[in-house]
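Q: Predict the bound structure with magnesium ion.
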Amino acid sequence: PEALTVGELANRMAVRGGDVVKAMMKMGVMATINQTIDADTAELVIEEFGHRIKRVSETDVEDAIVPPQDVDADLKPRPAVVTVMGHVDHGKTSVLDALRKTEVVRGEAGGITQHIGAYQVTTDNGQKITFLDTPGHAAFTSMRSRGAKVTDIVVLVVAADDSVMPQTVEAIHHAQAAGAPIIIAVNKIDKPDADPSRVKQDLLQHNIVVEEMGGEQLVVEISALKGTNLDSLVETIVLQAELMDLKANPDRTANGTVIEAQLEQGRGAVATVLVQGGTLKVGDIFVSGATWGRVRALVDEHGARLDAAEPSRPVEVLGYQDAPSAGDDFIVVDSESRAREVAEVRARRMKNHLASQGGRGTLEQMLSAI
Ligand code: GDP
Ligand code: MG
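A: Predicted complex:
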């Protein structure tokens, strides 16, 4: 409810309107039955009657900040966002490093020097791919539990000498739950005891059927160590991305998701944000999780400053008031007062939630309970 009259409030609490008027009088507020009251007053009254409440206005405030709705005509192609997953020691880090190195070889300014939790590479044909360099499954799970969908494609690394292991299966489940297509990268094919066909055989048990077994699963055999077939892996990612026809509207205010964040000496709260819609610009004011800020600088994986970041670009954002958490949203708003208001409401809500874990209900729950 946006506003409440004294009469409506009395109804919800199943007390007489006159009693609410009297209670308010005792509080020093003169009001009639039909008078609309503000959230602060409503809260006091409800507490006076022995009920508890979460502010009416909080819902209104937060509901208002969702990214702008895009129409199809505004959508333009965007790079794929890829997460590399797999069992421990099967070579996730090595694959990410090897792909990074191809970027260094390509002669980009100094290569990828910074660790920013995500980076973008440009293929020989000029296509861009964004890789999320999140430490393993925990980050993926926590992001999904927060409703953040960041990954378009999962590259599942399976060591050819070890085959399908528990975390391989876990990764398959994560990818399926997220609705993200999987590309199998059978890694370590340089090893003498490598057995890629066993990997393909074992994957059958998890409904993953590769082409040579009559299925459609994309699979690439690689050696991250020797650099074998990395080009094919990149090509396969590009192919999968083309099938998905990934698009976003770059011509609006930005929204995205926090990939990682920390407090840094001399730089303040810094977050790596994946822009998912719109274009983020220096000077933009934003809400992100329970905090807010104004973009002071945008820094890419090469340590270079950017003026703007378009969809699927991961970028370090400087200018946060406080550090957000991985998986938090990021939405550009039109004014500082708005950003503050939303961030404060969210921070208070989080505090209330933490303080009472179920003791204190939402307004909706409260009003339906009384
Ligand atoms: P992660 O735990 O999945 O990130 O695996 P790492 O990338 O850390 O790799 C684990 C070990 O496997 C390291 O010692 C790597 O050097 C080794 N490794 C990774 N890829 C290959 C490969 O293609 N061939 C061989 N022989 N070793 C590899
Ligand atoms: Mg690793």
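A: Confidence is low (pLDDT under 50) at residues 357-370.
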